[in-house]
Amino acid sequence: MRKLEQLYEGKAKKVFRTDEEKIYFVEYKDDATAFDGKKKGTIDDKGVVNNRVSAKMFNILKEKGIENHFVELIDDRKMLVKAVEIVQVEVIIRNIATGSMVRRYGVEDGILLDPTVIEYSYKSDEYGDPLMNSYHIKAMNLATDEELAVMKEVAFKVNDILKETFAKLDLTLVDFKIEFGRYDGRIILADEISPDTCRLWDKKTNERMDKDRFRHDLGNVKATYQEILKRVESL
Ligand code: 5GP
User: Fold this and answer.
1) CA torsion sign, 214 to 220 to 226 to 231?
2) Rounded mean pLDDT of 87-110?
3) What CATH homologous superfamily does 85-219 map to?
4) Are 59 and 83 in contact (CB under 8 A)?
5) Is there a contact between 97 and 111 (Cβ–Cβ < 8 Å)?
6) pLDDT (mean) for 75-83
7) Against a cut of 0.90, is the pTM above it?
8) Residues whose beta carbon lies within 6 Å of some atom of ligand 1
9) C-alpha distances in angstroms, 25 versus 2, 69, 90, 149?
């Protein structure tokens, strides 16, 4: 498959058209941003880690019946994906309170959330990904009720599968963000599943093993991403 012109460049990935209409080429970058782009940097080989971790997670999810955009790994930084139209809503699942949930509501950091919390935010760099509810989503024509129902159901299923998968690797899945796309009239899981988009805490040491190391200058950023890749590839 031939890589054609670039369609889009985001903060962490580039998307290219291919000579097959329904397939895109995604290239993962080492660029890292945080706090709505106010903090910028690079994490050496982050693109490799996120590409390979995402591929593995998408394969596991597919085996468990979660349709997603992953087609195949091309090399260390590139994968082929189905050419979806991304829904401009980020879906966040929280098992444990931390991050913006603590900042926003003052709940205690690290407490188990019962029930598991689902949030939606508007995928907009310009407006800083603001939280939204199902009424905003419908009124702004971002997704229909039917599409949102699918997104919600899939998000909780993804949580169950990822929690179990990461637990085998001695990692607690604290929270994560996923995105969906439209493909052949269906809503399928898209984007990436990586230490950029999931908070993962080491079960033994409670160490932060994700992008929070970059966000909060905790050190050992590159080594931590490599450790996640090593654990994921041991599956
Ligand atoms: P928080 O809202 O606490 O900052 O993030 C909740 C979870 O969603 C974290 O796992 C975080 O990595 C992920 N998340 C939320 N928004 C974004 C985003 O715009 N980009 C990335 N990479 N992850 C996000």
Assistant:
1) negative
2) 98
3) ATP-grasp fold, B domain (3.30.470.20)
4) no
5) yes
6) 98
7) yes
8) 90, 92, 99-101, 129, 175-177, 196-199, 211
9) 9, 11, 21, 29
Let me know if the fold of 3-82 is the same as that of 85-219: no
Pair of tokens at residue 231:
């654990």
> What spacing in Å lies between the alpha carbon of 62 and ligand 1's midpoint?
23
Beta partners for residue 17, in sequence order:
24
Domain ranges of the chain: 3-82, 85-219
Nearest CA to ligand 1 atom 2: 100
Q: Which residues sit opposite 13 in a β-bridge? A: 28
Secondary structure letter of residue 213 according to DSSP = H
Residue 37 pLDDT class (50, 70, 90 cuts): confident
Beta strands in 129-191 (DSSP E): 131-132, 171-183, 186-190
- Nearest atom within ligand 1 for CA of residue 102: 3
Atom nearest to 174 CA in ligand 1: 10
Joined tokens for residue 98: 């931390």
- Distance of CA 177 from the midpoint of ligand 1 (Å): 6
Cβ count within 10 A of residue 65: 8
Q: Residue 26: which pLDDT band, with cuts at 50, 70 and 90?
A: very high
Strands, sheet with 23-28, edge to edge from the N-terminal-most edge strand: 3-9, 13-18, 23-28, 78-82, 70-73
Architecture of the domain whose range is 3-82: 2-Layer Sandwich (3.30)
